[in-house]
Amino acid sequence: MAPLNLWLRCETKEFEHRAALTPTTAKKLIDAGFTITVERDPQRIFDDAEYEAVGCKLVEHNTWPSAPLSSPIMGLKELPPNDSTPLPHTHIMFAHCYKEQGGWVDVLSRWEAGQPSGMLYDLEFLQDENGRRVAAFGYHAGFAGAAVGALALAKQVASGGEKGRLGEIKPYPNERELISYVQGQMGAVQEKLGRKPRALVIGALGSDDIVKWDMAETAKGGPFTEILDVDIFVNCIYLTSKIPSFVDRASIDAAGAERKLRVVVDVSCDTTNPNNPIPIYSINTTFDKPTVDVDGYVSTSCDVDATGGTDRLRLHAYRLKAGPPLTVVSIDHLPTLLPRESSEAFSNDLLPSLLTLPQAVADRASRQGQAIAASEAGSGPERVWREAEALFWTKMGEMKAAKKQ
C-alpha cells in the first residue's frame, strides 16, 4: 500500500487560529509512513516553519482544490459559504450539516456533485465502538465559554446602566494567563454586585458558585427557573434530538424583576438547529462582536426629548422592571481562544484513528461512489472511518429526500 498523503488545508473562517493537525502529531504520522502536505496559513497559531521542521511539505495558501484526489483534505471548520463547486476529494472536517443546520442541503449537494470520489468524514461523528467521539474540543470549548461569559458579565455590570458590552477578544497564549485575567474581572463584579457572581453549567456536577447539571438534573424537562437565578448560564450539552427549552422568553418574562441572569453562553451553539433548546437568539456571535442582546431585555436611555419624553420614561421603567439586560455569547469556535493548547489536545486524541486512515481509504477505493450501511462497518481498527462513511451515505439520502419536498 502506497504511503498516504494527508493534506492539511488552511482555515478560512475569520478569527480561527486552531489546526486539526499540529506539528507534534504530523511528526508522529510521518514516522508512521505518511507524507504530510501543509498549506501556508498566516492565521494558524502554529508557524509554517514548525511544520517544515518536522518534515512536512509546505504549499501555497488555499490550494487544496488542485490536490490529487488520492490525498484526503483535512481541516477544522466548514468551507466558505455560497460556493456550489463540486467536492470530489475526501474531506475530514467539521462540516456542520448533519443536524439540518441552515444551508445543510446546499453543503451536502457539493459532495453529491463530487461523486464518485467525494467523501465527508465529519469529525463531529467519528465514534469509537462505544459510541463516544474519538476526539472533541469539549473541554476547551466549555473552558473558553465560561471565560468569555465571565468577561461579558464584567463588562456589563461595570458600566452605567449595564450598557457596556464586551469588545473584541483575542487568543490567549495559555490557560494560566486567561485564568488570571478572568479572576481579576470577577473580583470587580463581586464588588459591584455586593455578592459573588454565580454560574450554572448544563453538561457536568458543582460548587456553591458554579452549579453544574447533567442528565439527571434536566430529566424533568425545561424551562428551568433555576437558570434565571444565576448571573451566567453556560450550555454545554450535545444535542441529538428535540428537547424542551432550557430557557425561553415566557420563562424570562415570568421571572420579571427577580431575574438575575445577565449572560447566556451557548457553547453547544446549535443556533440554526430547529431543536435549539435556547430559542432566545438567532445569530452566531464572533470574536470581534462576542455578544448579542436579547431583544426586549435591554435598558434604553431615559433622556427626555421634546416629542415623547413621557413615553420614553415609561418604556425605560418597564424594561428595568423586567430585570437586567440579557445578552448571549454564541461563538461557534470558542476553543480558538486557547488555540495552541486546544489544537494539541484534539489532534493527539484523533491520532490513533488517523493512523488507521490509509487502510480505510484503500478499502473504499474498491467501492467508489457506492453506499454502505452501518452494519457493514465491521470491527477492525479502521471501523471508525467505515462507520463515518456509512453515515455520510445516510445523510446524502436525507439530503436528496429534502430536495424533493
UniProtKB/TrEMBL annotation:
<comment type="pathway">
    <text>Amino-acid biosynthesis; L-lysine biosynthesis via AAA pathway; L-lysine from L-alpha-aminoadipate (fungal route): step 3/3.</text>
</comment>
<feature type="binding site">
    <location>
        <position position="267"/>
    </location>
    <ligand>
        <name>NAD(+)</name>
    </ligand>
</feature>
<feature type="binding site">
    <location>
        <position position="132"/>
    </location>
    <ligand>
        <name>NAD(+)</name>
    </ligand>
</feature>
<keyword id="KW-0520">NAD</keyword>
<dbReference type="InterPro" id="IPR027281">
    <property type="entry name" value="Lys1"/>
</dbReference>
<protein>
    <recommendedName>
        <fullName>Saccharopine dehydrogenase [NAD(+), L-lysine-forming]</fullName>
        <ecNumber>1.5.1.7</ecNumber>
    </recommendedName>
</protein>
<feature type="active site" description="Proton acceptor">
    <location>
        <position position="77"/>
    </location>
</feature>
<feature type="binding site">
    <location>
        <begin position="331"/>
        <end position="334"/>
    </location>
    <ligand>
        <name>NAD(+)</name>
    </ligand>
</feature>
<dbReference type="InterPro" id="IPR007698">
    <property type="entry name" value="AlaDH/PNT_NAD(H)-bd"/>
</dbReference>
<dbReference type="GO" id="GO:0004754">
    <property type="term" value="F:saccharopine dehydrogenase (NAD+, L-lysine-forming) activity"/>
</dbReference>
<feature type="binding site">
    <location>
        <position position="238"/>
    </location>
    <ligand>
        <name>NAD(+)</name>
    </ligand>
</feature>
<feature type="binding site">
    <location>
        <position position="218"/>
    </location>
    <ligand>
        <name>NAD(+)</name>
    </ligand>
</feature>
<feature type="active site" description="Proton donor">
    <location>
        <position position="96"/>
    </location>
</feature>
<comment type="subunit">
    <text>Monomer.</text>
</comment>
<keyword id="KW-0028">Amino-acid biosynthesis</keyword>
<feature type="domain" description="Alanine dehydrogenase/pyridine nucleotide transhydrogenase NAD(H)-binding">
    <location>
        <begin position="179"/>
        <end position="301"/>
    </location>
</feature>
<dbReference type="InterPro" id="IPR051168">
    <property type="entry name" value="AASS"/>
</dbReference>
<feature type="binding site">
    <location>
        <position position="214"/>
    </location>
    <ligand>
        <name>NAD(+)</name>
    </ligand>
</feature>
<keyword id="KW-0560">Oxidoreductase</keyword>
<feature type="domain" description="Alanine dehydrogenase/pyridine nucleotide transhydrogenase N-terminal">
    <location>
        <begin position="7"/>
        <end position="144"/>
    </location>
</feature>
<keyword id="KW-0457">Lysine biosynthesis</keyword>
<comment type="similarity">
    <text>Belongs to the AlaDH/PNT family.</text>
</comment>
<keyword id="KW-1015">Disulfide bond</keyword>
<dbReference type="Pfam" id="PF05222">
    <property type="entry name" value="AlaDh_PNT_N"/>
</dbReference>
<dbReference type="InterPro" id="IPR007886">
    <property type="entry name" value="AlaDH/PNT_N"/>
</dbReference>
<dbReference type="GO" id="GO:0005737">
    <property type="term" value="C:cytoplasm"/>
</dbReference>
<dbReference type="GO" id="GO:0019878">
    <property type="term" value="P:lysine biosynthetic process via aminoadipic acid"/>
</dbReference>
